[in-house]
Amino acid sequence: MSPLRARAAARTALTLTLLGALMLSALALAGCRRGGEASTTQLRVQGSTTIQPIAEMAKEMYEEAHPGVTVLVAGVGSSAGIESVASGSSEIGTSSRDLKPAEAGLGLVDTPIAHDAIAVIVNPANPVSGLSKAQVAAIFEGRIKNWDEVGGPDLEIGIVNRDEASGTREAFSKIVLGGKPFDPTAAVLPGTGQVRFVVAQARGAIGYISVGFVDKTVKALSVDGVEPTEANITNKTYPISRLLHFLTKGEPEGLAKEFLAFVLSPAVQETVVREAGFLPMGGEPK
């Protein structure tokens, strides 16, 4: 097994163990209240790991302003978040992808809470600074296998992909691959942080993460000559952009409605959303 795959397998095993413990804790909490009964002092928000920083920062601000209210935030993936709100195991599900046609009949109400873009990332030691969208697709489909095919060094490309529960993967597949299958030999990881970590460690690696999670350990590539800057995301010239979603079962009410209104308020949109690396709804770049 290559060092890249070995690191991927180790990170996957650790993350799955942590997620298992998290889900057991969530089930224990759910058992403390009668089935399906909403709490007026506790709100469960589960889903996208991309949206998790926004939810966690908003949670802290909201709890400080509302003593006695507890907001439980869990990053379990977009698909799991959609399932949780549809089944009633959470009041708000978060998703970094649009609902699929098969999910349209679940009775979910979608409230977009931020603009985002997906950055294609490589190791900082990689001299390649940009790719066309067609080249990105060819790499992730497995048709381009060496960096020398796109102007880089003679080095095997190591694809780092997300798991099938990821909303980021779903959005990337739709926007970049047009729904075509990913290279089945790619390393598959369950979280944004894991993708960034592996790409930062392996010189030939390439992955994709929300632009809000890009830091100095990785390099974001331009796509079709456009860099994933705030201005280019807002004016929609960067080609891999999307919305981030909060979902409720039916129209939001009670504590869920209040928390949604709080997340959409200027106090959160202009501070928390921007601090997390995303763009507010209707906001202009600063």
Please describe what this structure looks like.
By secondary structure, the protein is α/β, with parallel strands linked by helices. It folds into 2 domains: 12-115 and 243-275, Periplasmic binding protein-like II (D-Maltodextrin-Binding Protein, domain 2); 116-234, Periplasmic binding protein-like II (D-Maltodextrin-Binding Protein, domain 2). It has 9 helices and 11 strands. The protein has helices at residues 3-31, 52-65, 78-87, 133-141, 167-177, 192-201, 230-234, 254-263, 266-275, and strands at 42-47, 70-75, 92-95, 108-122, 130-131, 158-162, 187-189, 205-210, 219-220, 222-223, 241-249. Strands 1, 2, 3, 4, 6, 7, 8, 9 and 11 form a 9-stranded mixed sheet that branches. Strands 5-10 form a two-stranded parallel sheet. Helix 2 links the parallel strand 1 and strand 2 (70-75). The relative contact order is 0.20. The model is unreliable at 1-37 (pLDDT under 50).
